[in-house]
Amino acid sequence: MLTRWPLAYVGQVYVRSDGLASVVITDTEYPMRVAFGLANRLLDDFASQIPQEKWKTSSSPLSFPELKTFIVKYQNPNEADSILKIQKELDETKIALVRFDCINEMCTLTLVRH
Fold first, then answer.
1. Predicted TM-score of the model (pTM)
2. CA pair distance 112, 100, nearest whole angstrom
3. 20 to 30 Å CA-CA from 28: which of 86, 100, 102, 114?
4. C-beta of residue 30 within 8 angstroms of C-beta of residue 7
């Protein structure tokens, strides 16, 4: 018997053509595009710092201290991703404009009644 339950986490897997891969595990609300952006940037930085011959043949874990920096930066997807950051600012501007329009309309209605 299969049981269904709500998923709490999602795994995003990214594999490059050279065989280097990463897995990003997030909650279900984390934007998938940002998770893949993280995976891509992480692998690019890793590959630029550690030669392919080393990571392809190593039988022990390799040190990559920048991983912690990536994890901290991507905790807030709105700050890590420029498109999300701009979208958030646009949404806030739209809310402010709607409020301004509502206040304007109320003022106009008040003036018309008097």
1. 0.64
2. 18
3. 86
4. no
Find the CATH number of the domain harbouring 74. Answer: 3.30.450.50
Tell me, yes or no, whether 50 and 70 share the same domain: yes
Q: Is the pLDDT of residue 70 over 50?
A: yes
Average pLDDT (87-113) is 64
In this predicted structure, what is the pLDDT of residue 111?
55
Beta strands in 1-114 (DSSP E): 9-15, 21-27
Of 68, 10, 64, nearest in space to 36 by CA: 10
Domains of the chain: total = 2
- Select from 88, 84, 89, 86 the least CA-distant residue to 33: 84
Task: Give me the amino acid identity at 23.
Answer: V
CA 112 to chain centre: 48
